[in-house]
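Exercise: predict the fold of this chain.
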Amino acid sequence: MLKKYMVHPGFVTSKDGDRHWISARKLMELYGVPPSLCIIFDNRDTESYSGLISRELTYLYPRNDGKYKKINLEE
């Protein structure tokens, strides 16, 4: 199955100043995308992704505001 999303797990700082780790699995859940359509980005191995930059991927990141929009998978 063709991958459509690049998931970037990472830390966010909430309004009260607390830092929280948002995992790749949690991001996929928050955005409503299935793992089968995702590539999980790993900061420790950026060279592995060089060939993917030219592909049309949607990049999913943690949001400080917590407002995640579900992605319409039918597009």
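Check your answer against the key: The chain has a mean pLDDT of 84.
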